[in-house]
Amino acid sequence: MHKVQLIIKLLLQLGIIIVITYIGTEIQKIFHLPLAGSIVGLFLFYLLLQFKIVPLT
Question: Is the pTM of this model over 0.70?
């Protein structure tokens, strides 16, 4: 059972990263930013970590 919980946690974390990257790509498209969408998503993820919206653990 412990291994299944670990896999579910890993998939959830991966899903969060994919969603944030997708949101960054959409922000880049809407505002026609000269940065890649993945970079915008990375910056968005950084902000979420700094404001403790997404926990580090």
Answer: yes
Name residues whose C-beta falls within 8 Å of residue 49's C-beta, 6 or more positions apart in sequence. 56
Residue 41's Cβ-count burial label (10 Å; 0-12, 13-18, 19+) is buried
**Domains in the chain, number:** 1
Domain carrying residue 39:
2-50
- H or E stretch at 13: helix 2-31
Asked if pLDDT for residue 5 goes beyond 90, the answer is: yes
The answer to whether position 32 is within a domain reads yes
End-to-end alpha-carbon separation of the chain, Å?
21
On whether the CB atoms of residues 13 and 5 are closer than 8 A, the answer is no
